[in-house]
Amino acid sequence: MTETVHNWEDHGYLVTYIKKNGSFANLRIHPHGLVLVDLQSYNDDMKGREEVDQLLNKVEERMKELFHSNIKRVKRLPAILRGGVIDRYWPTADGRLVEYDIDEVVYDEDSPFQNIKILHSKQFGNILILSGDVNLAESDLAYTQAIMGSGKEDYTGKEVLILGGGDGASNIDQMVIDGCKKHMRKTCGDVLDNLKGECYQVLIEDCIPVLKRYAKEGRMFDYVINDLTAVPISTSPEEDSTWEFLRLILDLSMKVLKQDGKYFTQGNCVNLTDALTLYEEQLSRLYCPVEFSKETVCVPSYMELWVFYTIWKKKTDI
């Protein structure tokens, strides 16, 4: 093993250890007492991982001996597996890294619009992932219920317009629908087997021309459900075209929403308070005055709390 020591006087030490097989470790000692040990090793079997764990156990024991047990805390993080055949890591909306228990790639295709993956999780079932973002899992009934009003609405005989929602509604991307009707049947059932049924029709179109067409025709809906995109993380609306897109969708949706109708949409992670506040400010910029309420729901496969909005036209005094 080759050892290299770097000394920065008042900035601590860095020691690297490299083995002939390519494995290496970094030992970083900070002046204020923090000691970091990083070990990287190529092991593609369980035996190799067990050897690494045994080595780290010995490192911890030796450190306690050297410091005469004067250690406040030792924290060992799970190994991150890089370059695997199956990617298991995605960040949450607020930037925390989460490792999923993915054990199978069910579907992986590139459409003209995005990369579409459906991966199997031991906990959550099949998960739809669009361009790297976790979209919906078979476990996520809570999401579907929340974006439909959490069971408080009676949809009997009502006109409903759903924007997006390729796992069970309408979508611009035919390949999302093709993947979901085969591999996400626990969420969409047999609805996507035929794009037109007795009481529904799925349109493979950009929703903006559809909304403009309905507005021109004077067609009105009792409910509009927007499942297109989450509230953007950016807090600079004038510099982010996504905010303009959201405002356009909101304005067009209000034009086709009945006076006593309701508009349902997802927000984002409850921790993104600045972005959510900015979204709520956008509601005051629409062509007509609106009011809103919101609720927070735990979506299993997101591994975080998610905010959902209900928006309706403000009733004016006659």
In terms of topology, how is this protein built?
Blueprint (H helix, E strand, L loop, with lengths): L1 E6 L5 E6 L5 E6 L5 E6 L5 H21 L22 E3 L5 E3 L2 E9 L4 E7 L3 E6 L2 E5 L3 H6 L13 E5 L9 H10 L1 H4 L18 H11 L3 E7 L13 H16 E13 L3 H10 L7 E10 L4 E10 L5
Parallel strand pairs: 11-12, 12-13
Antiparallel strand pairs: 1-2, 2-3, 3-4, 5-6, 7-8, 8-9, 9-10, 13-15, 14-15
* β-sheet strand percentage: 25-35%
> Portion of residues in helices?
10-25%
**Morphology:** elongated
Count of strand segments: 15
Mean pLDDT: 88
Fourth-level CATH superfamily of the largest domain: Vaccinia Virus protein VP39
| CATH fold naming of the largest domain | Rossmann fold
Return the CATH architecture of the largest domain: 3-Layer(aba) Sandwich
CATH class of the largest domain: Alpha Beta
- What is the strand arrangement across the widest sheet? 11-12-13-15-14
Weakly predicted, low-confidence segments = none
The domain tally reads 2
The H/E string reads EEEEHEEEEEEHEHHHEHEHEE
How far apart the termini lie comes to 85 Å
Global structural class: alpha+beta
Question: From the structure provided, what is the oligomeric state, counting identical versus distinct chains?
Answer: single chain
Largest sheet: 5 strands, mixed
Number of helices: 7
Task: State Rg.
Answer: 26 Å
Pfam family, one: SpmSyn_N
Protein name: Spermine synthase
GO molecular function, one term: spermine synthase activity
Organism: Cyanistes caeruleus (Eurasian blue tit)
